[in-house]
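Hey, resending since the last one bounced:
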Amino acid sequence: MRARNEADIVACIPSLRRYARGLTGDRDRADDLVQDTLERAWSRFSMWQKRGEIRAWMFGIMHNAFVDHIRAQRSRPEDNAGDEVPELPGRATQTDRLELRDLDRLLQRLPREQREVLLMVGVEELSYQQVAGALGVPVGTVMSRLSRARERLRAAMEGSEVVSKIQRVK
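The structure tokens again:
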């Protein structure tokens, strides 16, 4: 049984790496986040109790680790000096590399909550229910965050402003 558990966790690593890279925008920080996630998952594996998909559970662990790291950084603002979005590794053409870099920068400008949902649904193909479970929010919140993230990303790619559809009622 232990070998099966290990295989299930190891099978999640490529997805976790993609998600971590999208969250952090930095390969080294992403690798650190994946390592923290794997350590937490393994030490808490008995808490999973096979309620739901292990992949969604591990994304929840990564989300919490990422939020913990952000909170810790806020208490040490001097550590953030000089952070920049790194260049992404080269791809087949210069145009591809530039487009990928631009997309990564636009993703990093999204609010954290929207970026998380967009990456989980759009890149990792988790269901709304799985994302809701991983983030500890209602499915409706996942849907609205995803909608806002897509709208912001679309507007940013077109170079236009996001028009709020929510009206203030007095």
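The two ends are 60 Å apart (CA to CA).

Sorry for the duplicate.
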